[in-house]
Specification:
alpha/beta; Nucleotidyltransferase, domain 5; 4 helices; 36% helix; disordered N terminus
Length: 130
């Protein structure tokens, strides 16, 4: 299992689901939505809404991603999950993704470069629909 720590500031993918940023976002009344975002297509997958953004909730979200129908179609080509934090559960996370030749990359800047535009668009869409 390869785990990477990188100082890159941009993800450059050559195909769908090559790099997937997984992150929690605080939502109304202290709830957190866990999202997975493909860096190639900007396709996002809602992995769940949780009471907190703890490590166990991340692991639950990774399990959900591994079985999501849109991810399953691409996962056998190899992939890298990019996380902003959660290094303390590296062993457990590796056990979840390694059967599918997945790798982990810890880089909060890369995740932020995906999360911020996503959050702005989500907020704009919500505001526009109201």
């Amino acid at each position: 299992m390869e785990t990477l720590h990188s100082h890159k500031t941009r993800l450059i993918a050559s195909r769908p689901m090559e790099y997937i940023c997984v992150f929690p976002m605080e939502y109304a009344s202290g709830a957190y939505i866990f999202m997975a975002m493909d860096s190639f297509t900007d396709f996002s997958i809602h992995l769940g809404t949780e009471k907190n953004d703890s490590s166990p909730m991340l692991l639950k979200s990774l399990k959900t991603l591994m079985e999501h129908e849109d991810f399953v179609r691409q996962r056998d080509k190899g992939f890298t999950i990019v996380l902003p934090k959660f290094e303390e559960v590296i062993d457990q996370a590796s056990l979840i993704i390694s059967p599918y030749q997945g790798r982990l990359l810890f880089n909060s800047s890369l995740v932020r470069s995906v999360r911020v535009p996503f959050a702005k668009k989500l907020y704009a869409d919500i505001t526009e629909s109201n």
